[in-house]
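Contributing new records

If you add data, match the layout below exactly. Sequence lines come first and carry their own label; structure lines follow with theirs. Keep one chain per record. Anything else will be rejected by the validation script.
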Amino acid sequence: MRPLNNEETTLVFSKLKNYIGSNIRALLERSDGLYCFRLHNGRIYYVKEDIMKFAATLPRENIISLGVCFGKITKGGKFLVHITALEFLHPYCQQNKIWLKESAEQNFMYGNHVYKSGLARISENTPKYAGAVVYSSKDIPLGFGVAAKATAECRHADPMDIVCFHQADIGEYIRNEDTLV
């Protein structure tokens, strides 16, 4: 388990900035202590610094997982955010939110994109291709994706137009339980 280098830090922070904007500092400096990101076996972990210092005394081969897996760095050099990060991303997401109708929730949780017909509402001034947290109609976070259309474009879109590209959803806990760390 090692700290992120400058390239990895830039990669992770730029991806997180798509979802939570400038709240990255709030993610690292929380009221319950300081947190950091660490790389272990190609995966990025979000760890409390006290626990990380304790784990530094253990041999690396004995550590399977530490903290919460936020995502992984692919062989192509991109950072993919995992669904396990949703619990920590949604409280800090203030700008780009998408709410689904009850009829579209199950469709999204099977890994499908969000169509205009399933859109209950979208936050104002959501730009095109911005990261967005997807909520149920009862404000339960279901996952996250990328806005396929800006807010103004969504108002005049056809019912079968895609308004949000699927990235991750809570249904992955069941579909991919063997591969999630």
